[in-house]
Design brief:
heterodimer, A: 103 residues, mainly alpha, 83% helix, elongated, B: 17% strand
């Protein structure tokens, strides 16, 4: 966050984007998983990884990175496990984001 | 300095945009590779670009290839951004035409430092292009008058005569010489003489069409070639040039200097069997005739029936004294 030089308004703007993009990409991930479209799953994980790292959400970012790799290598079980983990981590993060946006 | 950012992820794009704006850049953000290509191929495109590798449809590598393949003027400094970090990827990125490569997540100071490298390369390129253009101009133009120099005007005219023969059109060749120029130099000095040469050059150049050609052939001698010239109107056009010079004195730094020119005219359609050199010789002979007739007039080179150049003076059928 120090990268934003304490610009609160700008942080809010980014978090609003994050909230929206996370939903879109999670939806895409679930669809890709259901269709066993590993290429699409890997690409979506790549996008999530970038977003998470940009906002310094390192732990979830690493999970997304692992998912990107697993999906690229067509490892079905790993991909499903990692996606579940990522969803849980994001569920932990999103209320915090909402609180920030509300405050 | 303007910079293009191509990044499909909105958060990355916004962060990058804000950061670069703070660093003083004018940012042009786009969301995909196709938009990036469209922006970079514009006439007044940004010269620096940050391209995300992974974008849907047209990716960053393809943008690099496309720009290098099709953009000829004004170099664009391209930096690829990617989270890929294998050696193969770096090599592929650079081989597509990228100048530099940054791995995400990147350090902002490092990004700024690499952009400064880009500035340096672009400045260097601008200096080189400028120097090349200046040398090209100097190699083809007369230093004093900025008209084509002798070598170039003769070559351009030769091409034009060849073309007019193929197209059955006419090129009018005019040798124009300032009358009594030595007297101008003697009376007013060489600085004024130079001013007179520049102004005569300017008037000749501004009196012909954009696709005609004017060059400095020698000291006070100018060669004018009128392309696709109607043979029937060539004399009156030569007369018009003459009148443009004689019409009003040349305003120099010290005083107005009255100047006239004599013109020898040769039409390529009259000398179909002649070489370019022979046609120029004919124009030269006509110029001598104009001088002998009292100067400040136009004389036309005449054909002596054989299709071969005549060596004697042309007939003085056109007395065009004002």
């Amino acid at each position: 966050m120090e990268r934003l030089d304490g610009d609160r308004e700008f942080l809010q703007e980014l978090l609003a984007m994050f909230r929206q993009d996370v939903r879109i990409n999670l939806e895409k991930s679930r669809k890709a998983k259901a269709e066993r479209d590993f290429e699409s799953l890997s690409r979506t994980a790549h996008t999530l990884k970038g977003m998470l790292r940009n906002l310094s959400m390192q732990a979830a970012g690493e999970t997304a990175a692992a998912l990107e790799k697993a999906a690229r290598e067509n490892r079905q079980d790993d991909s499903e496990q990692l996606l579940d983990r990522l969803v849980k981590e994001l569920e932990g993060i999103l209320p915090e984001v909402e609180a920030q946006l509300a405050g | 300095m303007r910079i293009l950012i191509a990044e499909d992820d909105a958060i990355s794009r916004t962060l990058l945009e804000r950061t670069l704006q703070r660093a003083g850049y004018t940012v042009i953000p786009v969301e995909n590779g196709a938009q990036a290509i469209a922006e970079l191929m514009k006439q007044d495109a940004p010269r620096l670009a940050l391209l995300d590798w992974l974008m849907p449809e047209v990716d960053g590598v393809e943008v690099c290839r496309e720009i290098r393949r099709h953009k000829e003027h004004a170099y664009t400094y391209l930096i690829l951004l990617s989270s890929r970090e294998s050696k193969e990827d770096i090599v592929a990125g650079l081989e597509s035409g990228a100048d530099d490569y940054l791995t995400k997540p990147f350090d902002l100071d490092e990004l700024k430092a690499r952009l400064r490298t880009g500035h340096r390369i672009l400045e260097l390129e601008d200096h080189l292009v400028e120097a090349r253009e200046s040398m090209r101009f100097q190699a083809t133009h007369d230093l004093l008058t900025s008209l084509w120099n002798r070598g170039v005007i003769v070559e351009l005219m030769s091409h034009e005569i060849m073309r007019s023969r193929r197209e059955r059109s006419c090129t009018a060749v005019m040798m124009c010489d300032i009358d009594h120029f030595k007297k101008v130099n003697d009376e007013y000095g060489h600085a004024i003489g130079d001013e007179v040469l520049r102004e005569v050059a300017r008037r000749l150049h501004s009196s012909v069409r954009s696709y005609d050609m004017v060059g400095r052939y020698g000291g006070e001698e100018f060669l004018v070639a009128l392309n696709k010239c109607d043979p029937g109107s060539a004399v009156s056009r030569a007369e018009n040039l003459r009148a443009k010079i004689a019409g009003r004195p040349i305003q120099t730094a010290n005083k107005p200097v009255p100047v006239t020119i004599s013109i020898g005219l040769a039409l390529s359609t009259e000398f179909t069997e002649c070489t370019v050199e022979e046609i120029m010789h004919q124009a030269d002979m006509a110029l001598y005739a104009a001088k002998a007739a009292g100067r400040n007039c136009v004389r036309v080179a005449q054909l002596a029936g054989t299709g071969k150049p005549v060596e004697e003076r042309p007939k003085e059928t056109q007395v065009l004294m004002p």
